[in-house]
Protein: AbiEi antitoxin C-terminal domain-containing protein
Amino acid sequence: MSEIVDINIQTWIEKLQAVGKNAFALEFLEKELPSYTAIGVKRALSRLTSKGTIISIIKGYYLIIPPQYHSKGILPPYLYVDGLMKYLNRPYYVGLLNAAAFHGAAHQQPQEFFVFTIMPAMRPTSKKGQKINYISISEINPKFLVDIKTEMGYLKVSNPLLTATDLIQFEKKIGGLNRATTILEELSEKISPEQINTEIINHVPVSTWQRLGYIWEKVLEQKTLADDLFQKLAEHQKNLFRIPLKASGTKNKLPTDNRWKIIINTTIETDF
Structure:
């Protein structure tokens, strides 16, 4: 009997693949195949997992592994994150190094995958040497996102400007300001002054804008972007206070940039 269950579930999975599906939820399977016992389903899924046909990403949610990915035993995150977050009923976007890569500004393939979502916090997942870091924030504004087409559908990714601010705000997660600035060198080419509008000015912390403005002006020589940002901050009555360039560094008896009120407590060294 177990062999019959296995064959039928495998056939059901193959039919999902045939219509472009690369994942399924356990409750969906149970609804579709109501004649099978919970034990029968569990055994069949365990056997298919052992064969490398499927893999459980989180409890109750399985990826279907096509032949071209059997050697890795898992799909690339960009092919399944959208479906996973829909299953969890969570807004999200792909950010930081991965978003920069989608915008053509990655010097090397990121080793981790960064997904922003709302509270409550999600633990990182690590499967087959593949790690997804979930970063919890208070809100996600879809106006700052773009849909990137993949072979399995679409993926929500932060637009170039939000990616730039996230790289500065969350620089510790990617290896520091040096790496963030290296990526900003190319990413800034995708940003126009028109993108610096009221909504995103109010969405991003002022301290992040100060650091980004300073880096644009003093390190990357992006004077047009820096000038426009400074003007927009003034128009929106955003007060600039003395803050260190490196958030975790010292700020005593060090020079301060008069325009951006940045305490210069580190020297930025990039790869370009």
Q: What stands out?
A: The CA atoms of residues 69 and 75 lie 6 Å apart. Confidence is low (pLDDT under 50) at residues 1-5. Residues 77-263 form a domain with the Beta Polymerase; domain 2 fold (CATH 3.30.460). The longest strand covers residues 130-137.
